[in-house]
Amino acid sequence: MSEQLLKITNCIINGDDEEIVSLVKEALDNGISANDILNKGLIPAMDIVGPRMESGEMFIPEVLMSADVMKMGLDEIKPLLNDSDISTAGTVVIGTVQGDLHDIGKNLVGMMLEVSGFKVIDLGVDIDANTFLEACEKEKPDVVGLSALLTTTMSAMKETVAAIKDKFKDVKVIVGGAPVSEEFAKVINSDGYSDDAGGAVMLCKSLIK
Fold first, then answer.
1. How far apart are CA 54 and CA 181, in angstroms?
2. DSSP states of 72-133 as a string?
3. Which sign does the torsion angle of CA 107, 108, 111, 117 carry?
4. Cβ distance 102 to 125 under 8 Å?
5. Is the Cα dihedral 32, 36, 40, 43 positive or negative?
6. Strand, helix or coil at 107?
7. Which of 19, 33, 45, 65 could form an SS bridge with 15, CB 3.0 to 4.6 Å?
8. What does the DSSP 8-state code read for residue 39?
9. 86 pLDDT higher than 70
10. Secondary structure percentages of the chain, helix, strand, coil, to 5
């Protein structure tokens, strides 16, 4: 990695919103392509931030700051990128299951996925199984992420996983949320579980690979 790209990576990790735009412009002026800035400067930063969040080395406010800086850098190069250059990691449909209106955790996962190179389709909250199935049919996702915060909606999560698995054999389904555990994830036959956004990104990457 060149010194300029390393500076961009460190800028995002440190949440430095004052330097990111000038660093990206400087890299472009020096002949570094927008694609290289994306794949060798921006995305590698979130590959570091995710695990640090999972290990407790970084906390949510710091992660949000890093994600915001990442977006600032991405906005600077977007006009120079082809559609095929962006969101190449895979497609993920996410939503909070039926009966549950909580979205903070889901939104954080969605944001982390986006800045890590995924195309994210966020269905919102209180989403029934049929809506997830329709999204799978339309978007052809690699992964579907289901969120629940209420114990009373864990049954809806189980039903939704079963419905997706029955109709879309190749789509991976992951779950998360306060009442959800790894054991529950296995019982309902999901493909994985994470208790934080950084882990969810790593899980999606591992499932798609």
1. 15
2. HHHHHHGGGS-GGGSS-SEEEEEEEBTT----HHHHHHHHHHHHTTEEEEE--SSB-HHHHH
3. negative
4. yes
5. positive
6. helix
7. 65
8. I
9. no
10. 60, 10, 30
Output the pTM of the full model. 0.78
User: What is the rounded end-to-end Cα distance, in angstroms, of the chain?
Assistant: 23
Helix axes 43-55, 104-115, angle to 10 degrees: 140
Type of residue at 12: I
107 residue type, one letter? N
Q: What phi and psi values does residue 192 have, to the nearest 5 degrees?
A: 170, 165
Dist CA 131 CA 180 (whole Å):
21
Asked if residue 77 lies in contact with residue 129, where contact means CB atoms within 8 angstroms, the answer is: no
Q: Using one digit for the tens of pLDDT, what is the confidence trace for 49-58?
A: 888 887 889 9
- In order, the DSSP letters of 123-177 are --SSB-HHHHHHHHHHH--SEEEEE--SGGGHHHHHHHHHHHHHH-TT-EEEEES
Structure-token pair, residue 110: 């969605």
Amino acid identity of residue 159, one-letter, is E
- Tokens 């990691």 correspond to 89
197 closest CA partner among 147, 160, 131, 132: 147
pLDDT digits (tens, 9 = 90+) for 17-32: 999 999 999 999 999 9
From its phi and psi, is residue 31 left (phi > 0), alpha (psi between -120 and 50) or beta? Answer: left
